[in-house]
Amino acid sequence: MERMKRTATCGELRAANAGRRVTLNGWVHRHRDHGGVRFIDVRDRYGLTQVVVDADAPEALRSLAQDLKFEYCIAVEGEVRPRPPAMANPRMPTGEVEVRASSIEVLSRCETLPFMVDERADAKEDSRLRWRYLDLRTFSMQRKIELRHKAAWATREYLVGRGFYEIETPLFIRSTPEGARDFLVPSRVNPGKFYALPQSPQLFKQILMVSGFDRYFQIAKCFRDEDARGDRQPEFSQIDIEMSFVSREDVFELVEGLFAHIFSSCLAKDIAVPFQRLAFDEAMDRYGSDKPDLRFGVELQDFTPFVAGGGFDAFKKVVAGGGTVKALVAPGCGEYSRKRIGELEETAKVYGAAGLASMKVTEAGLDGGISKFYASQATAIVHALGAKSGDLVLLVGAERRIACTSLGAVRSQLGRDLGLAKADEFRFCWIIDFPLFEWNAEQKKWDPSHHMFTMPQERFLADFESRPGEVKGDLYDLVCNGVELASGSIRIHDSELQRRIFRFLGMSDAEAERRFGFLLEAFKYGPPPHGGIAPGFDRLVTLMAGETTIREVIAFPKNTAGVSPMDDSPSEVDAKQLEDLHLRIVKEGP
């Protein structure tokens, strides 16, 4: 291998290199025979170079070139020469030149491929994950992994430049409740005891603030035992950030600068700062979501004022019961069939709506659906909603949260169906003034909206226990294009206030001490005010890459069942391993 060691990559050669002798190492991407002249495209992660075996080359070299197959790993030695002008390829960075091969060595052979390694594998996802090492060779995956690397580097570059230390926190911790199930790791040397893999470094980064490291970050691995889907994996990465002696405004300024730097460095794209801000209640009222896509309008509107003067009894009952009726004007959808409206209705029902009413806007007013119940108000309704002829008015009547979220889901669906959002546009927004608590109807108790270490806004500190439904937290989310990219808050740093929160959420002092005693103990020793945020790194790279699932930007992800088809994990272990851990498998069923 020393003799045929690479001296140039497959992406670097240009016209200025003509006459240079080089050695390329890479994979056979394409090969073709044109009248005895053999053309071989050789690929590595840097690009493609065309290699030529001329008709007058030695017989042994021509014979070897003839036998090359897709994805053979080869070394090529030869001279760089200009391509004839008519054969130059302006779509390839190396398209002005080719390498006239004088020697080829097969470094390893490749069996019949399960799918072609090309710009982007067109195989089904199960196959792509089964043979992930081949999928990762595609130009598409190579670019996305490169983008991930660049985003990680830009993150470190920016934060270190702002005085942050990158500090690792443990992966083996005690189990603490954080909203999802923990992954547990049995301890061999401490029988019957378990470590947990961290759902986040939350408690450790707060303890780092107590320790005086006032600017901390890490690109942290986190683990949650929950159902996988497009934007979730059992293991994922987040840009974990915590700062002492800060307010919400300091966090916003830092993160806006960080994201501007990442987008500029990785995509050569400027994003406007400061980001827009929306209160949680306003976001729900206008967009039906606390992660709205602001690249298009089509906002929810209040239809309730028209209910009393109409004859649609279902809406009257909703309003009489304290509910609301929300409307959405779908632009240019007046010709939607009953089937298409029915599909939108199914979307609304997923979020609790009993149904989806509709009315078509015409030059004469309103038509179809429930329009007959509002004929006398047609002109006023069309004017108030800003509707035009050819539009479709969609309506949901329900308890406020259900009315907003279900119609918000319809808005999102319309955005996709109608292509209302520009793919290359990024619209960031801070969602602020979240409720600190949310009612758990199933268990008849209050739960934290985010987590139980969030500081209540100052105006609620004295009596939050007596009016939990009104309490706003000093917490915030960062949203872009309908994706929640980050969540953070100003933290509680007073042990007694933290105990009050625990008690209100139904946790006894003894239970709090058992689960969080080390944090409460640390808070006895001069903890600083502090706050932070944790942008989802996988989600960020997914957004930047124009993909819809984080599996596309993780080198070795799990599938939607939480399984890795490549190495067949999770897997069974042998009896001796279980014995060492003092565990046994209990089979379900009779």
Compact description:
The chain is an alpha+beta fold. The protein has helices at 59-67, 125-130, 132-135, 139-161, 202-210, 248-267, 280-287, 313-320, 338-350, 378-385, 400-417, 495-504, 509-522, 537-545, 575-580, and strands at 21-34, 37-44, 47-53, 73-82, 97-108, 165-166, 183-186, 194-197, 215-223, 235-244, 276-279, 301-302, 324-330, 357-362, 365-367, 392-398, 428-432, 437-440, 445-448, 475-480, 483-490, 530-535. The longest helix is centred in the N-terminal third of the chain and has 23 residues, at 139-161.
Can you tell me about this structure?
The structure is a single chain. The chain is of the alpha+beta class. The protein has three domains: 15-108, Beta Barrel (OB fold (Dihydrolipoamide Acetyltransferase, E2P)); 142-278 and 429-553, 2-Layer Sandwich (BirA Bifunctional Protein, domain 2); 296-420, Gyrase A, domain 2 (2-Layer Sandwich), CATH 3.30.1360. It has helices at 59-67, 125-130, 132-135, 139-161, 202-210, 248-267, 280-287, 313-320, 338-350, 378-385, 400-417, 495-504, 509-522, 537-545, 575-580; strands at 21-34, 37-44, 47-53, 73-82, 97-108, 165-166, 183-186, 194-197, 215-223, 235-244, 276-279, 301-302, 324-330, 357-362, 365-367, 392-398, 428-432, 437-440, 445-448, 475-480, 483-490, 530-535. The strands form five sheets. It has an eight-stranded mixed sheet, sandwiched between helices. The chain has a five-stranded mixed β-barrel with strand order 1-2-3-5-4. The chain has a five-stranded antiparallel sheet with strand order 12-13-16-14-15. Helix 9 (338-350) packs across helix 11. The radius of gyration is 30 Å and the shape is globular. The N and C termini lie far apart (60 Å). The relative contact order is 0.10.
